[in-house]
Specification:
The complex is a heterodimer of chains A (487) and B (477). Chain A is an alpha/beta fold and 487 residues long. Chain A has 15 helices and 11 strands. Helices cover 41% and strands 20% of the residues of chain B. Chain B is built from 16 helices and 18 strands. The chains are: A alpha/beta (487), B alpha+beta (477).
Chain lengths: 487, 477
Amino acid sequence: MLNATVAELSSALAARQVSSVELAQLFLERIDRLNGSLNAFITVDAERALEQARRADAQRAGNAVVGPLTGVPIAHKDIYCTKGMRTTCGSRMLENFVSPYDAHVIERLESAGTVTLGKTNMDEFAMGSSNETSYYGPVRNCWNRGCVPGGSSGGSAVAVAARMAPAATGTDTGGSIRQPAALTGTCGLKPTYGLVSRYGMIAFASSLDQGGPMARSAQDLALLLNAMAGFDRRDSTSVERAPEDYARMLDLSLDGLRIGVPEQFFGEGLDADVRARVEEALHWFLAQGARRVPLRLPNAELALPVYYVLAPAEASSNLSRYDGVRYGHRATEYEDLLDMYVRSRTEGFGEEVKRRILVGTYVLSHGYYDAYYLQAQKLRRLIAQDFVQAYRDCDVILGPTTPTTAFALGSKVDDPLQMYLNDIYTIPAPLAGLPALSIPCGFDAQGLPVGLQLTGNYFAEARLLGIAQRYQLATDWHLRVPREAPL
Amino acid sequence: MTWEIVVGIETHAQLRTRSKIFSGASTAFGADPNAQACAVDVALPGVLPVLNQAAVELAIRFGLAVGATINRRSVFARKNYFYPDLPKGYQISQYELPIVQGGTVPIALPEGEKRIALTRAHLEEDAGKSLHEDFHGMSGIDLNRAGTPLLEIVSEPDMRGAREAVAYARALHALVVWIGVCDGNMQEGSFRCDANVSVRRTGADAYGTRCEIKNLNSFRFMERAIEYEARRQIAILEDGGRIDQETRLYDPERDETRSMRSKEEAHDYRYFPDPDLLPLVVREENIERIRAAMPELPIQRLQRFTQTFALSPATAAIVTSSRATADYFEQATAGASAEAAQQTANWIAVNTNAKLNERGIGIEECPVGPRQLRELIARLIDGTLSAKLAKEVDDAMWAGEGSADEIIERRGLKQISDVGALEKVVDEVLAANARQVEDYRAGKQKAFNSLVGQVMKATRGKANPAQVNEILRRRLG
């Protein structure tokens, strides 16, 4: 059961082969055993999980009409506000923050009958690519505990990879779902901007943040997205469109599929093993009748600098509310109002968060706004136009999710630029607002997983998931059990 | 060498919506602290703003009323600064692209009408309040006001001196109340003005350096603050000094302005478009719907009253000083003659307003309704009542004694206009006052007035004065 996918658990629950309470207990025990070494969870609430599981079992027993997720345990990134349960966002600032309301995503998944096991570790305020900026300590990669799991949704990725939860929620701003999925051999989808409500999802960079599912198969991503997506009037950027079944194209034919391969995604800095695995995957698709379409995304190389102007700019403003006045960390001693702000924020925020607040404040300052923020906005539009142009010639864009596999803990902490470069392939999609997913496509020489990234056109989630599902029916990379978290 | 005082006014008008501009919390005034602050107003982690369309409609209504351009696309921006009563650490406002651009507000001056140009009017949210009393060594924060919708109306520096500035502020106040976008309650802070004041030599082209004066929470304070500030600036310049651009606070206790912060200390607000809100797009049919529902504006009503009833501009201005007054006048004169309308306007301007002021109430609370006044004026015109008696009847109506006709009947106040009856009284008075008759004939005009007085006394004031005059003249030859 620990190794089962969400789809399999759903069938087992429906067939009464297992109860939701049994499943919850199974995963809670697994968390209990592994979390001390992997540190994937910040908060686990067994009582709450078992209570929800009992309710799910009662629903099934009462022959109520239930959905496929009823009784399925999942984990939530600690960026989603959960009513009555601590929500830290990986920060000391919110160490004792208990939200009085549920995020839209939590509401949707809980009303679909899922059981919340706990809240997963993450880079502080989702700012990081290694999970090392968490106030609650780094998450360790279950393929090699000396390596990072990626970030910022590293806790969710490891929870899924180590079978501590069959699925989890994540959020992606510049790659925070796809990069850790790639580094842990799991699957992660960042939906089209606006598809999943941001209400109750603690903001990092509002115009980029997007919630999405993390799981062990494309089919599971589809099942979760079916519950997570949907219009929410509390989020003005939420898109109002007819509900759709994201699992409807899982038997998609690959014959004639036009796969865009941008030269920019195979350039300098790409690890040889990663390149080889991604090219092998590409050839598999070509063998199924897909066509390769060479692409140029002329402005893609500007994505990283554009991102590191816009995301910090929005973050510097989004994080102003953490001032110690109404909730969150407040310094115990201070002399006056300014001192209270300075001390509370100095103590409450970690180094990476402070760095981005400073960068963001700088690029929005009088005299610098035009040169940085405004310029970056213009380039962002050019990057998006490149994709619009590209999708006239292809159906999906294929490339590596990350330039390297998981790197050693501590190896890039003191070199932010090297750290930021790890997101070079994941940043363009959120800048353009496009959906993208990462699935495992093999291992490097050290036995670390390699991620394949598929980027689709706006609202092409069902097609992306269909393409990924076809690949997963023919391969078993996504089924491999991590070395350092054996069953 | 004379100086010209140049004033521009920024006004924050609270829009009359039931809920806040970006949340569903109530905007009602006077609730217990923080009772009307929801998760969005408190800026809990993860909450998002959702624009209240009612606030947008009121902003459009204002824009149409001042003949401004309604921008079909406007943008909300974040104005970033830290303050305990600003929960998000930024205020959502409109910066580069406001919803309303341009427009004018006419003001009535003794020398004629002047049109004050507006730069813009934009939507924004109000902050909460910091309370410094009752919290020994600490401050209390009340977020009930946080997120209340405001329309910030910015004028051009078109006013010359305190008098024009106050005339503009009053006209703007009357207008926003008239069209129903703001309740105009200055005590509760629903209508707040800041003045930008500068001075220059008469005839100079360039403006002087301006100072922004805050805390002008009444028209009287505004006038005094501008006068003080202009004197201060002139004194500095005449001493060969220089004006520093700064924000100053008016202290009504000491009747002076003092420096709050200099230009160097001014915040860098780091404005940028709010990524949580889409650009505000206004559709043509919405504008047309709001235009169609627009009440007749003060200036239009003033022109109509002037033309229909031949009212003098001054009187017309008084009866259109507020929508309630104009409505009252309208009801009191429906179908009336020009003469009756003029009498009504004068009556409201003189008698009604004096009594309302005395009691400190508005015309909508006037115990004498427009139909009652209409009856009173009719009795005045048909000669039933003299002006003096009309006032007595009016007093009785204010005291709730009933309609004009009932009071006239009950008190027997009907004016005596019967010629035969009056001649009889006049003859009796003449017979009893031979001396005055002689004096009058000897050329003493005063004696005539004395005789009139005697007649009025004999009739207990009810004699028609015009007729008494006429009969007396005839009898005295």
